[in-house]
Amino acid sequence: MSALHIKKGSTRHSAYNLRPTFSDVQERHTLAVLVENEPGVLARVIGLFAGRGYNIESLTVAEVDHTGHLSRITIVTKGTPQVIEQIKAQLGRIVPVHEVHDLTVEGPTVERELAIFKVSGDGEKRVEALRLADIFRANVVDSTLSSFVFEITGAPDKIDAFADLMRPLGLVEVARTGVAALLRGD
Amino acid sequence: MTREMTGARMVVQALKDQGVDTVFGYPGGAVLPIYDEIFLQNDIQHILVRHEQGALHAAEGYARSTGKPGVVLVTSGPGATNAVTGLTDALLDSIPLVVLTGQVPSFMIGSDAFQEADTVGITRPCTKHNWLVKDTDRLAGVLHEAFHVATTGRPGPVLVDIPKDVQFATGTYTGPKPSASHYQPPVKGDIEAITELVAALEKAERPLFYTGGGVINSGPAASQLLRELVEATGIPITSTLMGLGAYPASGKHWLGMLGMHGLYEANMAMHDCDLMINVGARFDDRITGVLSSFSPGSTKAHIDIDPSSINKVIRVDIPIVGDVGHVLEDVLKIWKSRGRKTNAEALVSWTRQIDEWRKVDCLKFAEDKKTIKPQYALSRLEALTKKYDRYITTEVGQHQMWAAQFLNFEDPNRWMTSGGLGTMGYGFPASIGVQMAHPDALVINVAGEASWLMNMQEMGTAAQYKLPVKQFILNNERLGMVRQWQELLHGSRYSQSWSEALPDFVKLAEAFGAKGIRCSDPSDLDDAIMEMLEYDGPVIFDCLVEKHENCFPMIPSGKAHNEMLLGEADTEGAIQAGGAVLV
After folding, report:
1. What is the pLDDT of residues B174-202, one digit of tens each?
2. Please, what is the angle between helix B52-66 and helix B427-437, to 10°?
3. For residue B322, what pLDDT band results from cuts at 50, 70 and 90?
4. Are A36 and B182 a contacting pair at CB < 8 A?
5. Contact flag A36-B319 (C-beta cutoff 8 Å)
6. What is the pLDDT at residue B558?
7. Catalytic residue among B5, B10, B459, B481
8. Percent of chain B whose predicted confidence (pLDDT) is above 90
9. Continuous segment of H or E residues that includes residue B132
10. What is the reported pTM?
């Protein structure tokens, strides 16, 4: 099961291979947290971030191992190296958390996000939207005479770029799933 | 062992299988089936408190004085919400508690039923872990897991919420299987890091042990190993409020407590040391003072079972994640195998420097012939109770700090105080829990009158179970610590910090069938304390003390360890605006 196949790196109990902390530089890290899929587990993770004042830029969660009842939470967070280390240690001490992996440290990673965009307009704008969607390999999943719904998958940067292009062309609504990430290689 | 029984019976069976002898609790509608099972058996004693908060603190007192988890049983809704302060207190001080709450029937959850509260939601941030059990077949497993989680790794409070229908329904009971849990925090420290610590210890010119509640929590063996290590190396030792008793106060390397109201020699040593060995302490803000000048020249080693304690506020050089007992054992082993080296020459001059600091005699106070000084009261209590194997609890405030300064602790598990949360009202119920665990021991709650009033309803519990707890109240008719901060920080504007309309404590004691003693004359104090000690039953000792005494030494907010105030003369303009915003 790929979910459990994360390369061993900094385990949740390791404080030995700490990187230099106490610097003021804000870093963005992607964390993969393997948790027992029991009621309230997501509330525990979110409550930890809220209660201790940490940032969540993106969060995705789903059960990835149905027999072991394990869910994988992918969190993109931002903070100084010291805060990032604290977040990992604090996550590690939540009882139903099995593993915490800092993919940004253990990387390189593949990060993907799915988004759907509703763009409405007519004439030149409508044609241009469709042309750009093709360049970005976005699929049309719904269409009326005056609107499209595009589905796009990619790294968050690519989705941001697509959103910027769609805005002047009649962007109405966006829904994004948040980041899912895996380590590259085997 | 597997058999069929109701959920309510499972609760009692699981408690028995976990070796529980005492439960502190208060009944109510949602736990009636469990109370019925308690009625039908004699193995577990139930102590009926007068308020659920009292049950939690009593269980904390029981846990801290025995090393076993404290067990609490309360009802849904208000029963559970009244438990929140005690849960938070236990979480911050890492005290193992297993709290069982009743819940409305599972089919009524979410309907705003009578006495319904989202107990697991409310207690999620103030427990180590909690469970809502919706299936009787899962109940036994969860209860055993609850004991495992509460007592494994860094201890803490856990809560199991049990809907009433789950208590009535029948299911399969299974006995404890500790290996069943995935929660198994490692206890052994990394040998490379431990060797690094030993190497630093061999060379250090000004080493210092800074120990905390983790030593007590690790068990008596950890205290023994600590004593062996300190005696063998000759390295001086100071401790946090939570760690008192791990190393004996009579030991010759003992510096006394450190921190905001710690001893001059302890804080100066912390500031000037070149190797700090933190054993089971967490760099609390009461210890560090201003972070930027905390022990600026030292190499810092930190032994802690909780990885999140490491580098949380203070960057350390040698982090060791593990149980204090296991790690100290390895430290001793490696240190001995490398030839028991210390920098003996440097240690002599370090000890000489510390002796110079001791000469400051930072705990000296002006005695008074007419008025009892609180420090005098505690030094007499210390002198007259020295020969007992006594247990001390405290409330929170000035009296707590004076108790930590003036009472000496020779053994672990003899000192129960609310350190992290600072919960006024902790000490009295805690003393009840301690006395339950140690029926023949001398148990004294050193209190202030304001704190004591916060849980005074527990007089009913003390009287009902004939618990000879001694309530030693230093009565200054003030919220002394609040008053002290208002004097230092708020231009002596004593907003709401006095105790008006106090009860007559002697009559109050008598109203509960207990003994009341009042003393206001220093020359009567010894006799009065002896009368308290000799009385076989609960005593309220109303010790009328000096009303305006301040607690020194003190590291003012925003200052460093070497900027302590030693007495009234130092206080003028001591705290600046930057410090005033700190608590």
Report:
1. 999 877 888 999 999 999 999 999 999 99
2. 50
3. very high
4. yes
5. no
6. 83
7. B481
8. 94
9. strand B129-132
10. 0.93
- Is B405 an active-site residue? no
Out of A13, A36, A86, the one facing B186 most closely (by C-beta) is A13
CA dihedral A129, A130, A134, A135 (to 10 degrees): -30
Domains of chain A: 24-106 (3.30.70.260), 109-183 (3.30.70.1150)
For B44, B115, B137, B569, the CA distances from B101, given in Å and listed in that order, are: 17, 12, 18, 52
pLDDT (average), residues B401-428: 98
Cα of A43 to nearest chain B Cα, Å? 9
**What is the identity of the amino acid at B238?**
T
A40:B124 CB<8 A: yes
Which phi and psi angles does B39 have, rounded to 5°?
Answer: -60, -30
Give the pLDDT band (50/70/90) at residue A186: confident
Active site residue B114: yes
Q: Are A9 and A102 in contact (CB under 8 A)?
A: yes
The answer for B537, left when phi > 0, alpha when psi is -120 to 50, beta otherwise, is left
Residue-wise burial string across B369-383, b where 16 or more C-beta atoms lie within 10 A, e elsewhere: eeebbbbbbbbbbbe
* Residues with Cβ within 8 Å of residue B106, at least 6 apart in sequence: B134, B163, B165, B166
Candidate from B129, B132, B149 with C-beta closest to A39: B132
What does the pLDDT read at residue A14?
Answer: 42
For chain A, list residues whose CB is within 8 angstroms of any CB belonging to chain B.
Answer: 12-16, 18, 21-22, 36, 39-40, 43-44, 47, 51, 82, 85-86, 89-90, 92-96, 98
Which residues of B fall within a CB distance of 8 Å from A22? 311, 315
pLDDT for res A13:
39
Average pLDDT, chain A: 89
Q: Are A66 and A45 in contact (CB under 8 A)?
A: no
Confidence of residue B581 (pLDDT cuts 50, 70, 90): confident
Tokens encoding B469: 């707890």
Judge whether B115 counts as a catalytic residue: yes
Residue B83 contacts residue B108 (beta carbons within 8 Å): no
Residues of B with CB under 8 A from a CB of A: 120-121, 124-125, 128-129, 132, 149, 153-154, 182-183, 185-186, 190, 192-193, 306-308, 310-312, 315, 319, 321
Query: Is residue B101 within 8 Å of B75, Cβ to Cβ?
Result: yes
- Binning chain A into helix, strand and coil, the percentages to the nearest 5 are 30, 35, 30
| Chain A residue closest in CA terms to B318 | A16
Distance from CA of B283 to the nearest CA of A (A): 15
pLDDT (0 to 100) of residue A3: 44
Q: How many CB atoms lie within 10 A of CB A173?
A: 10
Burial letters B490-526, b for 16+ CB under 10 A, else e? eeeeeeebeeeeeeebbebbeebebbbbbbeebeebe
B116 an active-site residue?
no
Looking at chain B, which residue has its C-alpha nearest residue A91?
Answer: B308
Percent of chain B exceeding pLDDT 70 equals 98
Chain A residues whose beta carbon lies within 8 Å of the beta carbon of residue B322: none
pLDDT band, residue A4 (cuts 50/70/90): very low
What is the number of other CB atoms lying within 10 angstroms of the CB of residue B171? Answer: 18
Contact B128 A95 (CB under 8 A): yes
> Is B231 considered catalytic here?
no
Terminal-to-terminal C-alpha distance of chain A:
13
Are A16 and B190 inside 8 Å of each other by CB?
Answer: yes
What whole-number distance in Å separates Cα of residue B291 and Cα of residue B293? 5
Residue ranges in B5-94 assigned as alpha helix (H): 7-17, 32-39, 52-66, 78-81, 84-92
CB B260 within 8 A of CB B253: no
